Structures are given as structure tokens and as C-alpha cells.
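Exercise 7b. C-alpha cells:
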């Protein structure tokens, strides 16, 4: 079978997936053991596979560092994919191989992988690993070593306390339905590529950061009492007395400062061939 060329020029041979390292998130097996079994069977039927169940960052680092020529395949949630990307970033090994993903978990727990083009069903996702094409993608990396696949949200109403978070969801739901933003304002200093967008004396309701496909920049949507503002940047700094945020839907914080830097086209994801 002939190779499939990606828009970026990289060819992946669908007939020769080679050796795969299946990185199984233990939470995925507990959440949906049947989907995990199906994915393993499909992948084992088309390639030489080795299974690993890393349960700590150090164990994940060791498994990836000693994988040889095996291509990593994540079976699990967006959080599991984040952890693998973080480990590869620490090892300066993000771009050596395209990454395969079989999403397993609740719909909201695999939303980022789905948004990047990975099929929801385990059979289709496994087939994309075996005979798909590699898509180059951007990645946000923060100064704490975390990575973001698709979106960061900083909310004025959440300082990281569980009680504040529960009330925040109701406010966000109203905002998504088009009602005026009502979260309490946060006092934040926000800089994008060295430009000051907001300072501590001024109120910030929300800040949303996304990665538009192929843009090579992050898109910032800032909501203040003066109204919304949209711009693009490669580096973002947020500072405050203590604020929380969501990275791909997972809560982080509170922190006092966080710096996100865009790394364009730094990793590759296997998706169904066109």
C-alpha cells in the first residue's frame, strides 16, 4: 500500500505501522474496560505492540525514554495525553514520532482529542493509529512544565476554592447562553508579547486562550467591564494575588503567576487519512 502524505509533507506508511508502545491510562481501564480491550485488539492485529501502564511521572519518563523505535499511543483521556506530551517535552523528544491516541473516558474528558480530529470510537481511533496521516500541531507550554492542547480559561470568579468553583459553573452556563457575564471581577496583570492588556487596579471577568488551527499564534479573548477584546500573541503572562484556571478543561491553581509560550508545529498527531 502506498504512503499517505500529510499537508505538511510528512509521509506515514499505512501498510507499515511498525512497533507501537501502548500507554494505557489506569483510569481509562476502570472507566471503560471494553473500549480499552477493543482498541488493544485492533492495534495488536495490525502492529507489534507493547503495553505499559505508567502510574507516576517518573515511571512514564522511564517508559518513554526506553521505548526504542516504538511509536507512543495513548489510550485514555485528554489528561493522559497531556501527561505524555509533558514527558516528551521534558525529554526534548516531542517531534521525533507522530503520536497516536485512542480516546477513552467521558465525553468532556476526551473533548480536546476529539477537537483535534481523533475519532471518538475505539475502532476508528485505532485504525487512524495504524493507517492514518500525521498532522502537525501547536502546543502551549507554561513555565510550570504544563502543556495545553487546545484551550486555557482564566475565570474572575474562581480563586481555586472548591466552593467558588461550584458557583462558577452556574455563572458560566448563563454566559454560554448569551446572558451578560456575571462572575466577580478578578484583579490580574495580563501581558501579551510584552503589551500590557490589563493591570491589577482594573477588573477582568474572563480570559480565554485558544489555538486556532494553522495560525502559529494563540488567540486571546479578554472580557473586561469595557467589553470583549480579541487579539493574537505568541507569549502570555498572567499575574495576580492568586487565581485558578482550566487547561483543556482540567483545573489548575491557585497560582500567582503563569507564563504560556506557544510552540508552533512542535508535535504530530495521527488522524484519519483524508
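Sequence design result:
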Amino acid at each position: 500500500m502506498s504512503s499517505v502524505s500529510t499537508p505538511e509533507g510528512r509521509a506515514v506508511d499505512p501498510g507499515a505501522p511498525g512497533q507501537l508502545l501502548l500507554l494505557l491510562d489506569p483510569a481509562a481501564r476502570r472507566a471503560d474496560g471494553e473500549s480499552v480491550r477493543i482498541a488493544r485488539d485492533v492495534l495488536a492485529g495490525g502492529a507489534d505492540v507493547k503495553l505499559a501502564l505508567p502510574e507516576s511521572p517518573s515511571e512514564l519518563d522511564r517508559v518513554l525514554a526506553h521505548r526504542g523505535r516504538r511509536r507512543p499511543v495513548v489510550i485514555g483521556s485528554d489528561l493522559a495525553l497531556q501527561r505524555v506530551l509533558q514527558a516528551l517535552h521534558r525529554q526534548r523528544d516531542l517531534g521525533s514520532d507522530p503520536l497516536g491516541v485512542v480516546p477513552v473516558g467521558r465525553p468532556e474528558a476526551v473533548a480536546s482529542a476529539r477537537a483535534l480530529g481523533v475519532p471518538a470510537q475505539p475502532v476508528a481511533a485505532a485504525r487512524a493509529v495504524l493507517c492514518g496521516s500525521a498532522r502537525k500541531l501547536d502546543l502551549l507550554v507554561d513555565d510550570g512544565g504544563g502543556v495545553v492542547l487546545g484551550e486555557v480559561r482564566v475565570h474572575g470568579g474562581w480563586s481555586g476554592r472548591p466552593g467558588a468553583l461550584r458557583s462558577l459553573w452556574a455563572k458560566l452556563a448563563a454566559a454560554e447562553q448569551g446572558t451578560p457575564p456575571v462572575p466577580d471581577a478578578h484583579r490580574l496583570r495580563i501581558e501579551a508579547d510584552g503589551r500590557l492588556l490589563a493591570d491589577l487596579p482594573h477588573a477582568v471577568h474572563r480570559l480565554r486562550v485558544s489555538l486556532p488551527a494553522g495560525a502559529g499564534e494563540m488567540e486571546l479573548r479578554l472580557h473586561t467591564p469595557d467589553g470583549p477584546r480579541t487579539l493574537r500573541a505568541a507569549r502570555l503572562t498572567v499575574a495576580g494575588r492568586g487565581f485558578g484556571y482550566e487547561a483543556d478543561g482540567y483545573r489548575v491553581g491557585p497560582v500567582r503567576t503563569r507564563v504560556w509560550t506557544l510552540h508552533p508545529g512542535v508535535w504530530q498527531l495521527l488522524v484519519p487519512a483524508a
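Instructor comment: The mean pLDDT is 84. Residues 96 and 267 are 8 Å apart (CA to CA).
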